[in-house]
Amino acid sequence: MSRTVRAVAGIPVPHLEIVLGAVAWVAGTLALPTGVGTVLMAAGLGVTGVLWVAVRRRHGLGARLDRALRTQVLRLGLGVLVALVALGVVLPLVGGGWGS
């Protein structure tokens, strides 16, 4: 029997692993050549969609977060997104990028 991932506050977050898996698929396929990477990314995102639907049928939308915790989670997510975009812009400028 699988267990639902819980946030720090003890609130169940059933979709968290699926979102992290989708991010891992995208990040992993960036290291592959264009054709193979695109096909593998499409397959991975397709599997992610199927898993999303399965978890949603089993758990619904999950627990509702109170306003303060929701704001904290959104700030954290936005901070991670900004950091990743900044790294994506800065890293190619340093040392000619990964592909060189």
Please provide a brief summary of the model.
The protein is an all-alpha fold and 100 residues long. Helices cover 64% and strands 0% of the residues.
Model description:
With 100 residues, this protein is mainly α. α1 packs antiparallel against α2. The protein starts with 15 loop residues before the first helix and ends in a 10-residue tail after the last helix. 2% of the residues are buried. The model has no long low-confidence stretch (mean pLDDT 77).
Report, as a whole number of angstroms, the end-to-end distance: 46 Å
Number of helices: 3
Please write the string of helix (H) and strand (E) elements: HHH
Global outline: flat
Number of strands: 0
Computed over alpha carbons, the radius of gyration is 17 Å
| Beta-strand percentage range | under 5%
Query: In terms of structural class, how would the helical and strand content be classed?
Result: mainly alpha
* Mean pLDDT metric: 77
Oligomer: single chain
- How can the largest sheet be summarized? none
- Low-pLDDT ranges: none
Helix content: 55-70%
